[in-house]
Structure formats: structure tokens, C-alpha cells
Structures
1.
Amino acid sequence: MKKAILAVVLGGLALNAMAEESPWLVRARAVHINPADKSDPVGGVGASDRISVSSKTIPEVDISYFFTPNISTELVLTYPQKHDVYLDGQSIGTFKHLPPTLTAQYHFTPSSQISPYVGLGVNWTTFSNNKILNGTGSLEHDSFGLALQAGADFKLDKNWSINVDIKKVQIRSDVMISGATVSKVKVDPVLFGVGVGYRF
């Protein structure tokens, strides 16, 4: 009798575990980067906002882990992205940046077909392949800043979903020419994303 009861209990636990959702969610998004293009006067004189960075649409992959049905963390990844830099509307070169972002999220209605969420986190952006002013100019190597997020998952079935997402990311950098700082630029982009998700 004890063995039979134990078997029933273990079987019930196994079925319950199978019914629960996996804590892992992976999404693939297409994301449009729209920079704020704010900058200090070049050389400390003249008008502000003369330096700008090109907009771009990029691929993105993010991995989420759910600690509870409502609370998760999301790591956003992509590969180094190339952007053009402009001074007074004229191209002065290019650079690449890699901007991994980690956010903590709250999902308001995780069991519903439409599940909105908000997120708060940090962004780390590293700049590379600076080719500004024929190599005499560059951007500061690293930028750390806040990231704000809002979005929603539209569930198609138990595993698949459509995702829409918007982020505001703080990315700042010194603009260097021959090793001297000549301006500070606030890229601070808004990122509009749409993609698909899979819950394992």
C-alpha cells in the first residue's frame, strides 16, 4: 500500500512538473536604432548637437529567465554594429559598437494571451574599429548607462509568441581627436523591436 501511495504521489509530481512552463524564453527580433543625436559644442565653442550617428535596423537575440511567472531577467545580444558619424550633416567616418543589455522585467499578466511587461536595467557599450577623420578621431572605448523597457508578448500557442518591444538606452561617449577630448556625444537611442519568441 505504501509503495502504491508513493507511486501515485511521485506520478502526480511528475505530471505537475511537466505542466509547468519552462523558465527559459528565447526571442529573435529586428530592432530599429534611432539615436537622439545630442552633443556638446565641438572644441567647447559654437553650437551644440553638430555630431550625429546614423540610424540602423539590426538583428537581435535575447535570452530570458523567469524566476517567477511575473519576474524575469533578459539579456539582449547582437554582434558589433557599424554606424556612420556626421558633423554638420557631412560624413566624417565610421565606428562599430557592441551594446549588450541586461534588464529585470515585471510581467503583468503572464498567464494571458497578451502579456505586457516593463523592464529596468543596464547597458554596456564598447566601441571599436574607429575610423573617424581618417583615423585621427575616435570614441571612448566603453559606455555604461541605464536601460528602460516596455513591451508585450502575444502568445500563439504554448511555446510560440510574437513580441513587440521598445527600449530607451543611455549611451554616452567622449569624442577624441589625436587623444584630446573635443566633444561629448549622447547617442541615447530609442530601440523599436518586433520578433518571435519560443518558450522551452
Note: The first strand starts at residue 24 and ends at 34.
2.
Amino acid sequence: MNDIIVAIIMGVVEGLTEFLPVSSTGHMILAGHLLNFEGDRADTFKIAIQLGAVLAVLVLYWRRFAGFLRISPGLTQRPGLNLIHVSLGVLPFVVGGFLAYPFIKKVLFGPTPVLISLILGGILMIAADKYRRKETSEEVDNLTYKQALGIGLFQCLALWPGFSRSGSTISGGMLLGASQKAAAEFSFILSVPIMFAATGVDLYKSRDLLNRDDIVLMLIGGAAAFIVAMLAVVTFLNAMKRLRLSWFAYYRFVLAALFFFILYV
């Protein structure tokens, strides 16, 4: 298949799944296997095009991020959520990712680990639906520092590709007393610094493997991810009051069964 078409398909998969609790990395690894798009360069591509999706969040939430940084006199920090919340949510993932990076890249980036994590992540989401605490933070601006740190710790589960960063953070938030919508919105906000950092580190460490054609394909895939993610974020956030997290868990189980059949039967 033409490399440009593969890049667009992968970008669409990334944009559709990055902010849903179904694991974008898992979908891309499995899609890459079906498209025969695998190897170290392909793994770097799958991480790099996440920047397209995260740029969609940056565009949609630009006023809030500008308020965090106070880069404009007319855009002041909102009461409630602030950089301390974001830092507490990001720090555990950054530390865990730094320590576990070699193991993740060599051992967990593959179809079998992804299938296992799809199932385990689904079980966590069902547990969050069933055992969620009484809501103390209906909106993202009501989150406490303790909840932000707790969500950050849950987010570390997503270091295992296929577990889903959004699934882990939303589940953790619900178990800690945040509403499903507040946890989802906090997950979107946390994605910006985390994905910029993760992509930057991976691109730097893989720089000797890449050439000009790879960069072009990453830009094409990233553009596709950006466009699709813009639509996906708005749609998902609007639907969070009606959708149960366990519905996504059942989808993960079906997906795991389907790909197990495709890959191993």
C-alpha cells in the first residue's frame, strides 16, 4: 500500500481514538500490524503523529492554557484548576516514563501486550463505573490537588500501550470522586504537556533512524490526526453525560477478541 495512504489511515485512527478510553496506541499498533507497517521507524511514527491530536486540544483549550501561563493581560488564570493541578497530574507519568522507557519500547510495543492491556483496562473501567465514589468535583475547576495527584498516578497505567491514557485517567478520576465529564476534561488538558514531552523524547532518541521521507509522512499523518481529533474531542465531551464508561470497556473486549482471531487463529 502507498506510504501516504498508510500515513493518512494511521492519522485518522490516532485522531479518532486518542481521547476515547479505547487506547489510540493500541489501535495504531494493531492497525500497523494489519497494514504491515511495523518496526522501529513505524513505532516512532505512531508516537510522533500524536502531536497532531494534541494540537487539536491546544487549539480547543487555548484560552485556558494561555490563562495558565498568563501570556496575555486579558487572559487571567481561572479560579480552580491551575498549574499545580496540572503539574501533579503530569509528574508521576513523566517519572514513570523516564524510568521505564527502554522496557516499554522493547517489550510492550507489540500486539500481544496490547491485547492483554485492552482487557485489563476494560476491567478497570467497569470497576470505575460500578464502584465510583460520590461526586465531589462535578466540574474540572472543582478538582482538588489530592484528586489531581491521584489521577496522575492512575495515568501511569497508560505507560503500558493499550491501557489507554484517557481510560486510566477517567477511571481514576471517577474512583476519586470526580464526575466523568470533569475527569475527561482533565485528561484532555494533561495530554498536552505529556504528549509533547513523550514525542520529543522519542523523536530525539530515534533521530538516527529517520530521513526526510519519514518526516513528510509524519506531517501527513499528524495533519490527519489533528483534523479528526478536533471533531472527536468536541463530540466525546458533549456525550460524556450520556455515555457510561463500561460501554467503552465492552468495545475493548470485542476488539481484543477480534484481533486475537486475526493475529493468532
Note: The longest helix spans residues 212-239.
